[in-house]
Write a structure and sequence with these properties.
Layout lengths: L8 E4 L7 E4 L1 H4 L2 H13 L8 E5 L2 H12 L3 E7 L7 E8 L2 E8 L8 E9 L3 H12 L3 E11 L13 E7 L3
Parallel strand pairs: 3-4, 3-7, 7-8, 8-9
Antiparallel strand pairs: 1-2, 4-6, 5-6
């Protein structure tokens, strides 16, 4: 039986020399890889008491929705600015070269709800840090953050100190 790491394609020197790009599309396009990824993330939630799953576009949708469905929970999307149709709140965060803004519907999370965040990858942690701030501002409580992959060399967990963070696969470098 293959391990989840066997489904991840590693591309050296992309997008620049010295970087190894971890390609999640090879996990998604293999039925066994996709099932193993969903099951592995879901296993990390089996003893967690929570109300809703939040996921950032677009890969947080890919992994978060089937887990929400399987666990009979709601799924809340976090999107890039301008993509949600109703009243939103927004948060800016830093990218490697610039800034970005994400939004969530103002009525998406009720005060006191326990929230799990799911995404495909933690690198620098900026996106998820911004999402935790959005959730808190709506009165929600982040009880766990789960990733399929973690690039430990980029120290994204540092921005998420104080949260319960897990990754199915951890890569030492960046």
């Amino acid at each position: 039986m293959k391990k989840l790491e066997d489904y991840v394609r590693s591309i050296p020197d992309f997008p620049e020399p010295g970087i190894i790009f971890r390609d999640v599309t090879t996990v998604l396009q293999d039925k066994d890889g996709l099932k193993l990824a969903i099951d592995s993330i879901q296993d990390l939630l089996k003893d967690v008491d929570f109300d809703v799953i939040v996921g950032p576009e677009s890969r947080g949708f890919i992994f978060g929705v089937p887990i929400a469905y399987n666990m009979n929970k709601a799924f809340i999307p976090v999107r890039k600015k301008g993509k949600l149709p109703c009243e939103t709140i927004e948060m800016d965060y830093d990218l490697e070269y610039g800034k970005a803004t994400i939004e969530i519907h103002k009525d998406a999370i009720k005060p006191g709800q326990k929230v799990v965040i799911i995404d495909d990858l933690i690198a620098t942690g900026g996106t998820i840090e911004a999402i935790t701030k959005l959730i808190k501002s709506l009165g929600g409580e982040v009880v766990k953050i789960v990733f399929l992959m973690e690039l430990k060399g980029l120290k994204g967990r540092d921005k998420l100190a104080g949260f319960d963070v897990e990754a199915v696969i951890q890569y030492e470098g960046n």
